[in-house]
Give the backbone structure.
Amino acid sequence: MMSRKSDNESSRLDDAARAAWLYYVAGITQDEIAQRLGVSRQSAQRLVSLAVTEKLIKVRLDHPIARCMELSQQLVERFDLHHCEVVPSDPESESTTLGIAQAGAAVMEQCLKSKDPLVIAMGTGRSLRACIEELPPMDCPQHKIVSLVGNMANDGSASSYDVIIRIADTVNAPHYPMPLPVIVSTPEERQLLQSQKIVRKNLELAKQADVTFIGIGQMGADAPLYEDGFITKNELRALRKAGAVGEIVGWAYDKNGRVIEGLTNEQVASIQVKPNNRKPVYGVAAGIHKAEAIHGALSGKLINALITNEMTALKLLKATL
């Protein structure tokens, strides 16, 4: 009980710090603060007052969240983002999902609370799975959740990091998995599989997504596509030689966010995330080793919203990578 109370108090101070930063530093109204934080105007007022009472406000905002919000604002301005969440980094932890899992879950929860029906598209990967594990049970039959990526590995087994069934079970929403391998053997096989009626329906539904959540994979020696058995070491080398720095749902792209021509991209059965989407496309990723991949996705407008941590944000804001 004491631990839960302590967690609640810490969360309350985090919210107070966010509200205070928005009010005193960003200079926005309490009505706007309420809208951004998803609370009533009265709650927003109380949060700002709490920040003053707890002496979080001095000459500067004396709370780690303040630095994160500054970085978030810089990323929004640098990459013209719809939204950005930067969470504090723990230098003692090697986890790349610590903090961003909770932040990602909070954004997902806010979308799921919408009374208006939404089509929510989901990618795959460790970060997204960590977010979904933080989601509280909900009842959201008004929404449709569709996968952007095939749910099978090359050997026909279920993909280890497929998230569509997990989130659908948690929030009780209709879900539409993609009954395809992540990467097929030939371009002809991809065309044949995607021409099936049930697959075409899901492909069309995914293109109508009101909000999208995707993970971002790096293309180093430990690239998820290679580590999880979707491509061979030689295929990874060929992609890197062609300039690949990252991948989103299997599609490899270069430092400018341009999809690599040919190679394994000819065999990816997933839906390609197109640049300059007008609807929110959240990239959920962190880690210095992923910075180049994230930067490429941002530069190419493959994502227009980001959930990451402080160390990664600092790396992204440097002039060169």
Notes: The first helix runs from residue 2 to 25. Strands lie at 83-87, 119-122, 144-152, 175-181, 211-215, 217-218, 246-248, 251-253, 281-284, 305-309. The first strand starts at residue 83 and ends at 87.
